[in-house]
Specification:
about 40% helix; about 90 residues; alpha+beta; two-stranded antiparallel sheet
């Protein structure tokens, strides 16, 4: 989904309500702004760009056997990717 928006005084922009609702962005939320390849990327709160990195940090705190740890990592990564609408490549 895309939208054309106008940049107002002091660089202010308005994110269309449909996009805010779809991403769960509320008044007062802090977004992350990144520049990639000449494009502006706005990331909503609680965005996980790489679920595997998040899992590595969480799983390191839990001491389990390696086969269970790997199976758990794959299952959680698949579920996060599914929620984020990504393929499991």
């Amino acid at each position: 989904m895309g939208a054309q928006i106008k940049v107002l005084q002091k660089g202010k922009i308005t994110i269309p309500v449909e996009i805010r609702e779809m991403l769960g962005i509320r008044e007062g939320d802090t977004l992350t702004l990144e520049v990639r390849g000449g494009c502006i990327i706005l990331l909503p709160p609680r965005t996980v760009l790489n679920p595997t990195e998040l899992l590595d940090g969480l799983i390191e705190e839990v001491h389990v056997k390696e086969p269970i740890k790997e199976e758990l990592r794959r299952a959680i990564a698949a579920r996060l990717n599914n929620k984020l609408g990504r393929s499991e490549d």
